[in-house]
Design a protein that fits this description.
- Helix content is about 35%, strand content about 5%.
- By secondary structure, it is mainly alpha-helical.
């Protein structure tokens, strides 16, 4: 359910250059993008730009703010 809420927030945002990567457990094991991001209790989103990721977002409002800030920065 946590992941669905975050995914719905991403779907509401207009981000033309968006790349979405999602997964858990063995599906992402060994993938560099997910290194150091495992073990979260709740679904977690990271908004990354220019090879750097912002703070993890576990609430839809946090994710919305990060996505909006990214849209304004373009």
């Amino acid at each position: 359910d946590d992941a669905r809420v975050l995914l719905a927030e991403v779907a509401r945002a207009y981000v033309p250059s968006l790349v979405l990567a999602a997964g858990s457990g063995a599906a992402v094991a060994g993938l560099p993008l997910f290194e150091g991001r495992g073990g979260a209790v709740a679904a977690t989103a990271y908004v990354c730009r220019g090879y750097a990721c912002g703070q993890p977002a576990v609430r839809a409002a946090e994710l919305r703010t990060q996505l909006q800030e990214g849209a304004l920065a373009r």
